[in-house]
Amino acid sequence: MSSKHILIVEDERHLAMGIKFNLEAEGYHVSTVGDGPAALRMLEESDPEIDLIVLDIMLPGMSGYSVCESLRERGSDVPVLILSARTLSEDRTRGFDVGANQYLSKPFELDELLSRVKNLLTHHARRHQAPVVLPAGLKTYEFADAKVNFPQFELTVEGKSIQLTKREWELLEYFVSNEGRLIPRQELLEKVWRMPGHIQTRAPDQFILRLRKVFENDPANPRHFLTIRDMGYRFVARPSETNEG
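-> structure tokens emitted (245 positions)
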């Protein structure tokens, strides 16, 4: 029996309950909400965490497109299966553009829904079995006024202990592992967020801004975490006086 937690976001209660019943029969733990804001709150607060979202497009107040786009901007890579009565190719394209993994048109066959859910959960788990790998022997790292202990997840800046989120640690590790190298945006999405590189999301920029606030003396004029316009990002541990942010 699976213990994966699936969130159904569907305002037609009879349909939501029908999907919930069948997923629970497969051994999944299932929660349901009827609107977008409730879905985003559930993603932030749920214990256990959400492993997959079955998302309707036509929702009151906030469309499924907006829900998916919002969670991707927050850096979430939770798999999203869109269910929609809309069948036009532009609707499907928009769904993928905002970060959905799959798109299933209503009405649908139960067996196909269950198969897609299983495949999404399996492929997502496989991606997460390949964590960021630091160079051999790298355990501690120092730059600027920061001391980083990766195995212990300990960070001090100017002698003060700083807490990072899991995603911030992963991003920092990837930058350190590729110090000095230009990292394309698509590569960050694939390697750190484990999302398709073509996805349009501001998540890397938002997280890099957070790292700048932690590590840079002047976050508005960074010297370590650099954005290279139209190309990607570069981490420079020891910039010379001529380096520009």
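The domain at 5-127 is CATH 3.40.50.2300 (Rossmann fold).
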